[in-house]
Structure formats: C-alpha cells, structure tokens
Amino acid sequence: MLKHVSYFVVIICIFCAEMMHAQGQKIGFIDSEEIMVHMPEYAGIEQRLDLLTDTWRQDISNMESEIEELEADFEAREILFTEEMRTQRLNEINQKKDELERFIEEKFGPQGEYFTRQKELLEPIQRTIFDALTRVASRESYDFVFDRADDVRFLFVREEWNLTEEVMLELGIEEVRN
Known about the structure:
Strand content: under 5%
Number of strands: 2
Order of helices and strands: HEHHHHEH
Helix content: over 70%
Distance between the termini: 36 Å
Number of domains: 1
Radius of gyration: 26 Å
Low-confidence stretches: none
Largest sheet: 2 strands, parallel
Mean pLDDT: 83
Strand order of the largest sheet: 1-2
Structural class: mainly alpha
C-alpha cells in the first residue's frame, strides 16, 4: 500500500514538473551524496566517524566477551550453587546484557551518539553544498531543484537537468566519473 502511494506521489511530481516545464519553469536535480563523496572534507569526517565506531565496537566486543565468560562460568558451576547464588549470578548476567543493550542503543540507536555526531559533522558540508546549489540555481534561473540522494525517487529524469556537476564545479571539485 505504502509503495503504491509513493509511486503515485512520484508520478504526480513528474506530471507537475512537466506542466511547469511546459509553462517555462525550470526544474533541476542534484545528487548530494555524489557531491559529498568528492569533497575532501568528507573523507576526514568518514575517518573520524570510523575511529569513533571502532572504539565503540571494541567496547561492545569486550562487554560480549565478559557476558560469555559469566555464562560459561555459570554453566560450569551451576550445580554447585545454592538457589540464592544461582539467582544472583543470573541477575548479574542479565544486568550485563541490559548494560550492553543500553550501550548499543546509546551509541548506534536512532537518537544515538553516532547519528548525532554524523549530523554535526556533515551539517557544514551540507550547508556548503546548499549555498553552491543556490548560486547555480539563481545564476541559471532554476525554479525548483530536487536532491535525488534522499527518499525522492525519480522514475525518469533527463540528464540535462542534472546540476550535480555544476554544483561540484561551483565548489571547486573536479569532475570524477566512475
């Protein structure tokens, strides 16, 4: 159902775009992800995020190892424990598992530190791209410009309306095609 609705929205957007084009309005698009990949600042941001996540992944691995050791020790000695000791050890294991889950959520969850840092680090680059796009769109009299890197999916686009390279040139990035 949702897929049908999104296709319907895209078709309406294309229809509206064609109508506006017929009326003399100019529409273009960029691929901000492609632009970012070619910006030198982006590589530095990726490295910083990778370093941060490597540290967190090591912490997660250590916590998992600790839980595995506690579980192995519990299984090996379970028959020697009193009911109270058994309950205490199981509670300790469950507490460690809860700590691990909280840590993962804190670092990698939707509101986690990774996404917060990523947003902080990418915001200046995105602002720079937007400023360059504004200059290109104003200079060339575009009425609307879409970013196809986001959730907007175009079923068909004429490459003549692709402003990605012009925005990259505005930013001083040499064209690099794969």
